[in-house]
Amino acid sequence: MPAKSEKQARLFRLVRGLQTGDISSRKVSPQVRKMAKSIKPSSVKDFIKVKEIINTLKEAEYTLSKFKKVEGQSFNQLLSQNIGISFDKKELLIFQSKQNGFAGFGRTTFLHNRNKNEIAAEIFSNETTKKFIFKKLIDNEDKGVNKYACFIQKTFPNKPNKEVFYTLSNNFSDKNASEKTKMLGDFIDRINSYGL
Q1: Among 1, 56, 139, 188, which one is least packed by beta carbons within 10 Å?
Q2: Cα–Cα distance measured from residue 61 to residue 17, given in angstroms and rounded to the nearest whole number
Q3: What is the largest CA-CA distance in the chain?
């Protein structure tokens, strides 16, 4: 059963994050710790979802440590189905500040494609190519709500098939500049730490 409100969903996302180890127990209240111990993970999982759809992507869990693998769609199909809106100057500065050390490398260049409203980075490691595309999406049901999305394509030298993944940030309001720049910085840092 999906959460009845965003506030309720946020609470259960914290509980779920604590249960999966994505959130430290020191960063949550005693109430959240008690709920994490007393409620079954399968029950918590039902309440972390809110009835919303970001373009064609299905509902995403709070935990950003897990990418969703895409089956039956190419990377380009996924990108074309999820139309982004433009990044503002403050958001572009966040990407610029995160270029050093992205994905464990010395310096990665984020390329801004204004025509497609996306930011791309490509990394070559151990003969594997990883392509990252960042977009800012609008919620189809609530035009005042946005999410950042990261789409990843992995290409292997000995495999003809490419693996495609995506992950979403939490909701934010595009009108709140400090909220969205903090959200974007945290989102990039989390993706950077995954080691996908």
Answers
A1: 1
A2: 10
A3: 50
Which residues lie closer than 8 Å to 124 by C-beta, 6 or more apart?
Answer: none
pLDDT at 87: 93
Residues in contact with 187: Cβ distance below 8 Å, sequence separation at least 6, in sequence order: 64, 148, 150, 169
- Where does 52-152 have alpha helices with state H? 75-81, 89-97
**Which tens digits make up the pLDDT trace of 45-99?**
777 654 443 333 333 333 434 678 888 888 999 999 898 999 999 999 999 988 8
96-127 b/e with 16+ CB inside 10 Å = b? eebeeebbeeeebebebeeeebbbbbeeeeee
Per-residue pLDDT band for 1 (boundaries 50, 70, 90) equals low
Does the model's pTM come out above 0.85? no
The residue assigned the tokens 């609008």 is 138
